[in-house]
Structure formats: C-alpha cells, structure tokens
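User: Good morning. I'm curious how acetyl coenzyme *A would be positioned relative to this chain. Could you predict the structure with it bound?
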Amino acid sequence: MALPDRILTNAELATMVDTSDDWIRQRTGIEQRHIADESETTSVLGTAAARRALASAGIGASDVDLIICATSTPDHTFPATATEIQHALDIHHGVAFDVQAVCSGFVFALATADKFLTSGSHKVALVIGAETFSRLLDWNDRGTCVLFGDGAGAVVLAAEQGTGTIADRGVLHSHIRSEGRYRDKLYVDGGAGSNGKVGHLRMEGREVFKHAVINLADTVEATLAATGLTGADIDWFVPHQANKRIIDATAHKLGVPGSRVVYTVQDHGNTSAASIPLALATAVGDGRIQRGQLVLVEAMGGGFTWGSALIRW
Ligand code: ACO
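Assistant: Good morning! Here's the predicted structure, ligand included:
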C-alpha cells in the first residue's frame, strides 16, 4: 500500500468547514485521512503500492503481463493510469488498462483480472486501486469533504492449476452489478466530454447510504450462495471503507462478528477504489490475514456500481 505523508485530522477539518470531530466520528467512524501533495499523483501512489505488492509476492515486474488499475481520479484524462504505472515499472510487454467503477473499482478490477487469468490468456496480474479523491472535493461542502482521502493499494494474482473447488487459492467467485438510473445520487459535475472541467463530487448521502446497505447485502449473499458458504465460514470480511455504520450493518446481516471485520475507515477515510486493497495490505501486514484463509470483499459506489468477491488467500 501507499499513503501520502500528510494527515488531515477531523479537528483540522473543523477549522475549515462547519463540522466537528464528534459529528464525523459518530456518523462515519472516520478520525483522519491522508491527503496527497502535488507530486503524489494517482499513478505515483499506484506505482509505489504496485512495487510493494510485487516485493511481497516475490514476483519480478518482468513477470507481469496484465495491469489493471481501478481509479476515478486518473493523472490525465488519457492515457490510462495503468499504462503510466506500466511505464514506471519498466514493463514492455502485456497489457495495461484502467477500470472505472468508482468505489467498486477494485472489486471490478479483481473480477476482470480473474477472468483474464482463468481464460488462460494472461499469467500474472497486478491489480491496483489508486485514488486522489481530495482533488475532486468541494472543500466548502461539509457533507462530502469530510468523507474522503487519498491512497493506493495493490495485489498480485498469478494463474495456477487448481482443482476447481473452493479449496483452491485465489478468487473463488465474484459478482458485480451496476444500475445507471441512480447516477444523480452520486456523481462528479464535470468531465472532458461535457463541460471540460474536472468538476466536484456531488452526493445525496442519505440516499447512497440506503442503497448501499441493500445492494451490499444482495451481492454478498449472491457470492456466498454461489460457493455454498455462509458468513460463519468467512475468516475476514474486508469491506469498502466508506462509513463504519454501513460496514457494521452489512457485517450484522452477514452474521460476521466485529472481530473478523477489517476496519481502516478510521485512519484512511473513504479512498474509493483504493480502500479495499489498503485494508487488505493493513490486515496482511499486521498478520491477521493468513495464507489459506477465506476473505470476503465488497463495495458499492457511484453509478451505482456494486460487487463482491470471495478469495482464498
Ligand atoms: N458536519 C456536521 N454536520 C453535517 C455534516 C458535517 N460534516 N454534514 C452534514 N451535516 C448535517 C446536515 O446538514 C444535516 O443537518 P440538518 O439536519 O440541520 O439538515 C445533518 O447533519 C444530518 O445530515 P444527513 O445527511 O441526513 O446525515 P446522515 O446521518 O445521513 O450522515 C453521511 C451523512 C455521513 C454522508 C451518510 O449519509 C453517509 O455516509 N452516506 C453514505 C455516503 C457514502 O459513503 N458515500 C461514499 C461513496 S458510496 C460508498 O462508498 C458507499
């Protein structure tokens, strides 16, 4: 994982907009977030996370033949951030492209990479979630600017011959969905193809919250049903880190106790596509997630998009 050095606390935010540490903690669970400086672009953070993931996997960059970067905050409208990362890693073969599914981006990228690997077309994938959401925020809108942060996380997936059962390691099942009619609930009011501006994030928070709890429960149930498992079988639940109350509601529906939920929302805020790989890296780094364990990830984001994946680590 890679996080900017600069930490913005709730107390400091309260000097910028009409909010309080208490309000932010109680409604969201967020205590602080990391904010990128000018030099810390999405590709810079994504490249740093990718290098650490490769080192941790013991795999050289030259072995990677697929790079998928999930982001809604690319350095440039084009080229894709994934190709910028490919260049920074000095990789000259294979393919690199971005996936844009906002906060669900990492789950969409993971599902895509898994399908490439299981098809046999590619062998080693680098899946990255990288964001600089601070650059999309309206810092006068207390309803949104307190929620988000910057960072990146990455995982390496490698094709191996398996048994075709849930005893195999890797992505056992993924389920992804979208529903474009909810666009106005969560969107950015700018774009290269419309007003030519970067724009600001706009959100109807209460509406998003309501849909998140319903859609996340649906996707998690679909993934569990496909594998014949239940919440009781899950070793670690690693949800998108948007809001502690959304995480708690989903964990409760799943029947997963808090002790098996990975929370990083308090430290990172909502880092959109980066939040799941940041949480994975945190829980792998401190020894909670162990090889062979079952890890359930889920996310919901603008679009709406949502999805989940069950991984044997
Ligand atoms: N500080 C203090 N007061 C605030 C703040 C703030 N930062 N923001 C809003 N308020 C006020 C509102 O103005 C409102 O005041 P009023 O009652 O006088 O009108 C009051 O707090 C309650 O506002 P609500 O929006 O109803 O508060 P709610 O309990 O719904 O919490 C929140 C807002 C945290 C945004 C919540 O709706 C939420 O988390 N929604 C999900 C949004 C989300 O996570 N989006 C990320 C992308 S999608 C995803 O990742 C799932």
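The chain has two domains: 6-158, 170-312. Residues 205-227 form the longest helix (23 residues).
Let me know if you'd like a different ligand tried.
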